[in-house]
Specification:
The complex is a heterotrimer.
Chain A: E1 4-14, H1 53-65, E2 69-70, E3 73-74, E4 77-80, E5 90-93, E6 100-109, E7 112-125, E8 129-133, E9 138-142, E10 149-155, H2 162-179, E11 191-200, E12 211-216, H3 219-238, E13 246-251, E14 256-262, E15 272-273, E16 280-281, H4 284-292, H5 298-308, H6 313-320, H7 323-335, H8 339-356, H9 366-377, H10 383-396, H11 400-406, H12 415-428, H13 430-437, H14 443-454, H15 461-477
Parallel strand pairs in A: 12-13
Antiparallel strand pairs in A: 1-10, 1-11, 2-6, 3-16, 4-5, 4-15, 6-7, 7-10, 8-9, 11-12, 13-14
Helix pairs in contact in A: 1-2, 2-3, 5-6, 6-8, 7-9, 9-10, 12-14, 12-15, 14-15
Chain B: H1 8-16, H2 22-40, E1 43-46, H3 48-63, E2 74-78, H4 105-112, E3 116-121, H5 155-162, E4 168-173, H6 179-185, E5 188-191, E6 211-216, H7 219-229, E7 259-263, H8 273-288, E8 292-296, H9 304-319, H10 340-351, H11 354-367, H12 373-394, E9 399-403, H13 414-417, H14 419-424, H15 430-435, E10 439-446, E11 452-458, H16 464-475
Parallel strand pairs in B: 2-3, 2-4, 7-8, 7-9
Antiparallel strand pairs in B: 1-3, 4-6, 5-6, 5-10, 9-11, 10-11
Chain C: H1 4-13, H2 20-37, E1 55-56, H3 71-75, E2 81-82, E3 85-89
Antiparallel strand pairs in C: 2-3
Chain lengths: ~475, ~500, ~90
């Protein structure tokens, strides 16, 4: 039987603040065990949380990037449960009045564009980490990650397939990176995902019973877990059995999900407003100020690149697929507005070099890069030498100008030599000149080829072509 | 020198005049503690070595002519206020050997003035109780009558000041824990406005209600200590950034023309006759000083106890969840093969006493799914009502006068026999915490058995200066009768 | 409902292990305590429930990191430690 899959996602994203959300310890990833903690984030007696301005700002910024409304009075609540990675035995989170509500994120699907609605985005603290020592049969608690700021992005059940889920996570990840609030390194856990999934008959009025798959930390895992779960639930329903509402864990090695605990013995979290933290009030000015720090978002940039800069949509989309690349492009064209040639040089040459050297970071400055493309466009160096210069730039960190000079790539543009060489050629090949005048215009290509090869490094092809055309035209009218 | 019932003012004069040195003064208190405390049970920890070093340092400052108001003044500190390097137990087995690697902000502020800390004072376990009987370690007796409780939860602090085992002390007050023991032990204690004194480093009982405050032999001393400990603290997210002015500034000024409100519900059923009489007599003496007495009403007082206990226990159940034996404090002996859940359950069952367990159960009840709206949410609603009723009273009056406790200090084991009576005993004090207001309790009489009776003056938020002024005005014409604890002292 | 079973549930939430006898005695205590608490049942919520006043966004703590506490200080009160971490018995 065919079923409709109904998916809601909860994405956890760690925010790129300097300090933790409730204390002044570093919020950076990693570190030796318990080297980034203090009595506050380790839950010591008498210690108090003090809310970090930037964490709130970033959460709001994420919300704005995802078209959320911002609660101008937002409150923090305690979620009470015991687990050894949670030193206070409660997590400071937000229940009734989260920072952001009612957003939406656009995604591309095979059936066209679609909007996924967000229920909320709230700010909370991350838990520590447990390292399992199987030999001694104990776990070791490390609180470095405890109280690192985290936002939880909760969707409405609008997602219908693994493909859409993947597209959504990619879109969110891109928006968070554009907003500059999360590095979205799934392999380091700075972006993690819980999937709520149920199946229903296509004509059903109500959703089926859902299972929640916790802590998926790669796009591949999300897709595989959903596909497995779709099949598992479909098999159950086909056999006339029911799906149990429960939390499941995905096993990456087997590609299967396994029950962790059922909802029947679900936790009673005893949420209540955290009496140590004052709710936050925003003025319109506060929100305007935060909004003003948000850069132009990917969709808008694609529009700009296509409509204003004349780039093909495919190219525009590749450029905006990474905020660093798009920013690089913007900076380069602000120095040299060769919109298409800069884009082409990025897409063909720069990205290839980066792939070859397996780097995520753009290895040249936008300013140098713009200079290089300009030199090629203006014929100061020929295209092939331009590529070589780029390669040297990666190695030497010298400017393209310096490299071109050092390696004799600069085209001299000696017009005297151009005239001499072309005159000599035309005298040599009277036969071709006559053919040309006689109407066989295609011989021009051969003549041009001859000229450029004889004039390599002396002048740029554009100038050569111009002189050749002039001379042939003069002969024609004689 | 005679240390009984001394004031900071007297000690300051003697220290500055070099009649006594700070180390000599500290030693005199240690001698008294050694002689009397075995019978009284005020101190959990005596920190003599640290104190003498602090006294030497204080003396240098005095000698240099740079003494601050509290330089060299000995303090007793309630044992839920963290003191770096000195055990802070909360009178619980759970924290029996806990040595905090930090000091509470209030301690930092006092140490900036070079006070001398004599030691850590007994209390109800985690400040839960009003008799100091729930302490894991010892019983503190009332210096006026060894068969009676000192009140609580700051029973050790109040008894120590009363018996002159410290000239002044810090306590904490969540529902009356400074004022009620001060009343029972015949001393003066003030709970400051919520948010005026930092809670950083003070082991939390109920975060929205807890405040640290002074216990001393006069309102003036309370003001001097309050001036030292109040102030914005960036480490306490609820600390008020409001500018603080000198809380002793109005002391000695006439109270003529001031309106003193007496809410009739505080003088009704359940309040002992002798207590009522003493407080009303104090009201009369204020009238004689030119104050205007005004009968007012606080209809929500009848819900004060459930409101207080539901909010306090809910917060406490969450605040106490961090005690699991893993990071600090008591850890049940590992049983091979035991898992995490077993270990924390045994740790908490063995580490906490019964009263703490009752509060955890009650708090979880108030917050658990299905009961939240009926209990916790309703308590928050009533909190709003109580705040409004105080606002209405303060729109027409300057201070509110009430008894501090419905009765004088009772005997031991009574509360444990009658939980209901024990919980209801906070009726006169709890609304002040719920509304976040400042209040001071000072002695206003003695019952037929010689037990002290206290009255409370409640003020507007951040108006500590006014309640100190009014309390002081009464103290000037009131003769205190100190406890007789000297038998057996050289 | 206010019986041993309720106390069993609540003690589970609070991670207290109580014997059957203790459950009974705490159930009796709770009965008396809840009698007092139940007086608020007669109150009806007719207006706004109290909401704590908020702090201005601009007054929140600035995002400055400071040195953390030395690891040995963080661990000094732990009864069991290993490899610079707190020791937790194996999880269920």
């Amino acid at each position: 039987m065919q079923y409709t899959t109904v998916i809601g996602l909860e994405i956890h994203a760690e925010l790129l603040t300097n300090s933790k959300v409730f204390c002044t310890c570093s919020a950076e990833f990693g570190g030796d065990p318990n080297t980034r903690c203090c009595p506050v984030c380790s839950g010591f007696p008498g210690m108090l949380p003090v809310l970090n301005y930037r964490a709130v700002e970033y959460a709001v910024k994420a919300g704005m990037a995802m078209n959320c409304s911002i609660n101008k009075y937002s409150r923090f609540d305690r979620k009470n449960y015991f687990y050894p990675d949670l030193p206070k035995a409660y997590q400071i989170s937000q229940l009734d009045l989260p920072l952001c509500i009612n957003g939406k994120v656009a995604i591309e699907t095979s059936e066209g564009p679609k909007e996924i609605r967000l229920n909320r985005i709230h700010l909370e603290e991350d838990a520590g980490k447990l390292i399992h020592d199987d030999f001694n049969s104990v776990s070791l608690a490390d609180y470095n990650r405890s109280s690192v700021p985290l936002i939880e992005i909760v969707t409405e059940p609008d997602i219908r397939s693994a493909e859409e889920a993947r597209a959504f996570v990619e879109a969110v990840s891109m928006l968070l990176q554009y907003a500059g609030v999360c590095d979205c390194k799934m392999e380091q856990g700075s972006l993690r995902c819980d999937v709520n999934i149920s199946l229903m008959k296509p004509d059903a009025k109500e959703f089926g019973t859902r299972a929640e798959i916790k802590n998926l930390n790669s796009l591949k895992a999300i897709v595989r877990a959903i596909e497995y779960e779709e099949k598992r639930q479909a098999d159950l329903l086909d056999r006339g059995e029911r799906v149990v509402q429960e939390t499941r864990r995905f096993n990456d090695n087997h590609g299967t999900t396994k029950s962790m605990r059922s909802k029947e013995d679900a936790q009673d979290y005893r949420y209540f407003p955290d009496p140590d933290i004052q709710p936050v009030n925003f003025t319109d000015e506060d929100l305007d100020r935060i909004r003003a720090t948000l850069p132009m978002l990917p969709d808008e940039r694609v529009q700009l690149y296509v409509n204003e800069y004349g780039l093909p949509e495919v190219d525009a989309k590749i450029l905006v697929s990474s905020v660093a690349l798009s920013d690089f492009y913007n900076e380069a064209i602000s120095k040299y507005p060769g919109y298409k040639s800069v884009s082409n040089f990025i897409l063909t040459e720069l990205l290839r070099r980066m792939k070859e050297t397996e780097t995520d970071e753009i290895p040249v400055t936008a300013s140098d890069f713009a200079d290089l493309v300009k030199m090629v466009d203006e014929g100061k160096v020929n295209r092939n030498d331009g590529k070589t210069i780029l390669r040297y730039m990666l190695e030497s960190k010298e400017t393209p100008e310096e490299i071109a000079k050092k390696n004799n790539f600069l085209v001299v543009n000696d017009m005297g030599a151009v005239n001499e060489v072309i005159d000599a050629l035309l005298a040599e090949r009277q036969d071709l000149v006559e053919q040309y005048i006689g109407g066989e215009k295609k011989v021009f290509g051969f003549l041009m080829g001859q000229c450029t090869s004889r004039l390599k490094g002396v002048a740029n092809p554009r100038d050569i072509k111009e002189v050749l055309e002039q001379k042939l035209a003069a002969l024609e009218t004689q | 020198m005679d240390l009984t019932n001394v004031t900071i003012k007297q000690l300051r004069t003697k220290l500055d005049a070099k009649e006594i040195s700070a180390p000599e003064l500290a030693k005199a208190y240690f001698a008294r503690i050694a002689a009397l405390d075995p019978a009284l049970g005020c101190y959990i920890t005596v920190s003599e070595k640290e104190a003498l070093a602090q006294a030497e340092k204080a003396q240098k400052r005095i000698d240099a002519g740079e003494a601050a108001p509290l330089t060299g003044i000995p303090f007793g500190i309630k044992d839920n206020i963290c003191t770096e390097g000195v055990k802070t137990t909360c009178a619980s087995r759970m924290l029996e050997d806990f040595v905090p690697p930090y000091s509470a902000t209030v301690m930092e502020r006092l140490q900036q003035q070079d006070i001398v800390m004599l030691g850590k004072l007994n209390m109800d376990e985690f400040a839960m109780g009003n008799t100091t009987e729930t302490s894991y370690f010892k019983k503190t007796v009332n210096p006026y009558n060894k068969e009676r409780v000192p009140g609580g939860s700051s029973g050790g602090s109040a008894a120590a000041v009363s018996a002159s085992l410290a000239p002044v002390a810090l306590g904490t007050d969540t529902g009356g824990s400074i004022r009620q023991p001060s009343s029972f032990c015949g001393v003066t204690g003030m709970k400051p406005t919520y948010g005026s004194v930092s809670r950083f480093g003070v082991v939390a009982f109920a975060s929205s209600l807890d405040q640290v405050g002074p216990i001393a032999n006069s309102a003036y001393d309370c003001g001097v200590i309050y001036n030292a400990i109040t102030g914005f603290d960036p480490q306490d997210g609820k600390s008020s950034p409001k500018e603080r002015s000198d809380a002793t500034a109005l002391i000695g000024k006439s109270i003529e023309g001031m309106t003193i409100a007496l809410p009739k519900e505080f003088f009704g059923e359940g309040i002992e006759e002798e207590v009522k009489k003493a407080v009303l007599a104090a009201a009369k003496s204020y009238e004689a000083m030119g104050a205007i007495l005004k009968e007012v009403s606080m209809p929500s007082l009848k819900y004060a106890i459930p409101t207080y206990y539901l909010i306090a226990s809910a917060e406490a159940s969450s605040n106490l969840s961090r005690y699991d034996g893993i990071k600090f404090g008591y850890r049940a002996k590992d049983i091979p093969g035991e898992d995490y859940n077993d270990l924390i359950c045994r740790t908490r069952s063995e580490g906490f006493g019964d009263e703490v367990k009752r509060r955890i159960l009650l708090g979880n009840y108030a917050l658990s799914s299905g009961y939240y709206d009926a209990y916790y949410k309703k308590a928050l609603y009533l909190k709003g009502k109580i705040k409004q009723e105080y606002e209405a009273i303060f729109s027409e009056s300057d201070v509110v006068l009430t008894p501090t406790a419905p009765y004088v200090a009772c005997g031991f084991d009574q509360g444990i026999d009658d939980l209901g009576k024990m919980y209801l005993a906070d009726i006169c004090t709890a609304t002040v915490n719920i509304a976040g207001l400042p209040a001071i309790s000072t002695p206003c009489g003695y019952d037929a058995g010689g037990m002290p009776i206290g009255m409370s003056l409640v003020g507007r938020a951040f108006d500590e200066a006014q309640i100190l002024q009014v309390a002081d005005a009464f103290e000037r014409n009131f003769e205190r009768i100190g406890p007789k604890v000297e038998s057996g002292v050289r | 409902m206010r019986d041993k079973e309720m106390v069993r549930y609540l003690s589970g939430l609070g991670k207290l292990s109580l014997t059957e006898q203790e459950l009974e005695s705490f159930a009796a205590d709770m009965e008396r305590i809840l009698e007092i608490m139940d007086s608020i049942n007669e109150v009806e919520i007719t207006g706004e429930v109290y909401q704590e006043p908020g702090v201005a966004f601009g007054d929140l703590r600035q995002d400055e990191k400071k040195d953390s506490t030395p690891t040995e200080t963080i661990l000094q009160n732990a009864k069991e430690k290993q490899d610079n971490a707190f020791v937790v018995p194996k999880l269920f």
